Amino acid sequence: MRINKLFSNLGFCSRKETNRIIEENRVTVNGLPCRVGQWVEDDDIILIDGKPIPKKEKIYIALNKPVGITCTAAKEVKNNIIEYLNYPEYIFPVGRLDKESEGLIIMTNDGELSNKILESENEHEKEYIVKIDKEFDDEFIKGMSSGVEICNSKTRPCKVKRIDNNTFNIVLTQGLNRQIRRMSKSFGYNVIELKRIRILNIKIDGIEVGKWRKLTSEEIEILRKC
User: Fold this and answer.
1) 218 and 168, same structural domain?
2) Of the listed 44, 49, 98, 133, which one is catalytic?
3) Residue 115 belongs to a domain
4) What is the residue range of 162's domain?
5) Does 118 reside within a domain?
6) 212: domain CATH number?
7) Residues with Cβ within 8 Å of residue 180, at least 6 apart in sequence
8) Is 98 one of the catalytic residues?
9) Greater confidence, 53 or 190?
């Protein structure tokens, strides 16, 4: 894999930060100066400042993201999630939750687990509560459940349940950009509130908006087996 991905997977630093320290000539691969974007193998000897890559303790956090926070590690983006959380170690969001939405997002420095959670073919469940701008009928539930044409493709079938006249629960197994908003829009509805309440086995229960907690060892073990 590329050295940027390796450093991120190991929880050492971001891919962008990897480029910076390589450009500062602090990284060598098998005794030679590393190049930005260089491909590395498992048996390569990689040193930073002449020493092996420091081992970082893995961090796993469940955050109840407020509306207005953007799920990016880019420092130049106002109200980015890294700045908001202000955690003292390198971590990043697993996937995204759009700025207008709130709810559960996992933060970690474990690149391998993050990739596993996000792999589309794994069909991992994410659960949401959604409020739209007007009442809907059973045909809306049937249509949403069956798959909707958005972004030049049809969404996977999903589980949709009515909560009240204009609120529903939906469980997705994919994560297209602004998927629920676009699905609802295709039926003539606008989402006015969207909250993610579950990712796989991790639930938002007990976490106030804007607060976070560390995952338990049992939760992490289940995630790794998913």
Assistant:
1) no
2) 98
3) no
4) 125-199
5) no
6) 3.30.2350.10
7) 128, 130, 170, 172, 191, 194
8) yes
9) 190
